[in-house]
Amino acid sequence: RRKICILDPISHTPANWLIRVSEVFTEFTEEIIRGLGGKSSKKLGSEYFVIQTSDPSALRDSEVAKFVRWNLPVQHSWPCNPEQMEGFVEKAAQAIFRKFGALHPQAVFIGQLDPGVSNRYYKSLASNLRGRTLQLFPPEVAAFKEIEAQQGDVPTLFCLVGKEGLFCGMQSPKASNGLYPGGTKYISQSSPDTISRAGAKIAEALHYLLMHRAAPGKGSHWLELGASPGGMTSELLGRGYKVTAIDRAPLDKRLDHQRELRFVLADVATFEPKSGAPFDAILSDMNGEAPDAIRQVIRLSKFLRQGGLVIFTLKTPGAVTFSEINELYVTVVGMAAAAGLRLFARTHLTYNRLEFTLFFEKVAPPHDA
To answer: What is the separation, in whole angstroms, between the first and last Cα of the chain?
Structure first.
């Protein structure tokens, strides 16, 4: 017997929200949901939860929002097992169009609810469902294929499908905290030429940055702190950037003789740039205590041009509890703000472990205003 599924009506102010919390923060799930004002939750897949909250702004503005990789209002759901549903794609596509067609999304993107599963059925299902759904929408929506071309502040129709069913909602990528359904772009590091997984981390960070501001243009000069073995260095060079890389350990031999690379074998704490043009961006993925790392970024930010970018990995060694991680975050952001580095985005990336990626830009320090 096939399972009968009931379609939920759309709501423009839903109490249900789909949130994604990385598995590395599993032990903090209850505290995260409580911090979001969530009253109850249902787990979907390995990292998703449906929560009920009357304060959606908490998903973006609260202290715990940094733990939520992605979020979406559940404005339409079909709780069922698609593999057991005859004609699922056609029925789901027609229902999606009926509920969202008149709302004029800038684009429609559909992904897997659990992308880590080995069963490829749902990857194909998501692709087929998107293809059929786009046939029903106006040509300008159907023609929108480049995910990175989305406007960060304009609503997109996102849908996720998995063995638990179909979940859809309209929200801007910036509000959802990702251009892709479910978050940011997964970047494989399986190539034999890969120096380290850190290359994927900065690639994903630059992809995420597109929702907030343009990435530095080709030829921009980056100061990279804690560069060894050179995974991030390689990625930056491959994007046409100049890089001054600092570390006490050498870089991978494959980076020898790179024209746009200057490597300084030194402790970051003793490094002092030579006079000349300022840096356009600073990248810090240094190990060790986060306050020590941000102090070096602050010290060297005097060589960063006004409006320049800082991408900083907030690592949390020694911070074990939920409250300790939050206190560390507040400390680091406060130190940066006092020095004229304004936080404008923060997230947990695919290749982040117990750490966050913070995005700052250089502004006038408060005492210079």
So the answer is: 70
Q: Say how far apart CA 60 and CA 347 lie, in whole Å.
A: 11
How far apart are the C-alpha atoms of 184 and 153, rounded to whole Å?
16
| Residue 77: CB atoms within 10 Å | 23
Task: Give the other-Cβ count within 10 Å of 12's Cβ.
Answer: 8
Q: 131 vs 100, 110, 145, 183, 186, CA distance in Å? A: 16, 9, 11, 20, 21
Q: pLDDT of 222-267, one tens digit each?
A: 999 999 999 999 999 999 999 999 999 999 999 999 999 999 999 9
pLDDT digits (tens, 9 = 90+) for 318-329: 899 999 999 999
Cα 367 from Cα 369, distance rounded (Å): 6
Give the total residue count for the chain: 369
Q: What is the pTM of this model?
A: 0.91
The answer to whether the CB of 170 falls within 8 A of the CB of 73 is: yes
Secondary structure (H, E, C), the chain: CCCCCCCCCCCCCCCEEEEEECHHHHHHHHHHHHHCCCCCEEEECCCEEEEECCCCCHHHHCHHHHHEEEEEECCEEECCCHHHCCCHHHHHHHHHHHHHHHHCCCCEEEEECCCCCCCCHHHHHHHHHHHHHHHHCCHHHHCCCCHHHCCCCCCEEEEEEECCEEEEEEECHHHHCCCECCECCCCCCCCCCCCCCHHHHHHHHHHHHCCCCCCCCCCCEEEEECCCCCHHHHHHHHCCCEEEEEECCCCCHHHCCCCCEEEEECCHHHCCCCCCCCEEEEEECCCCCHHHHHHHHHHHHHHEEEEEEEEEEEECCCCCCHHHHHHHHHHHHHHHHHCCEEEEEEECCCCCCCEEEEEEEECCCHHHC
Among 62, 74, 18, 25, CA closest to 44: 18
Torsion of CA 101, 102, 107, 110, to 10 degrees: -30
**With contact defined as beta carbons under 8 Å apart, do 295 and 335 qualify?**
yes
Backbone angles phi, psi at 108, to 5 degrees: -130, 120
| β-bridge partners, 222 | 243, 281
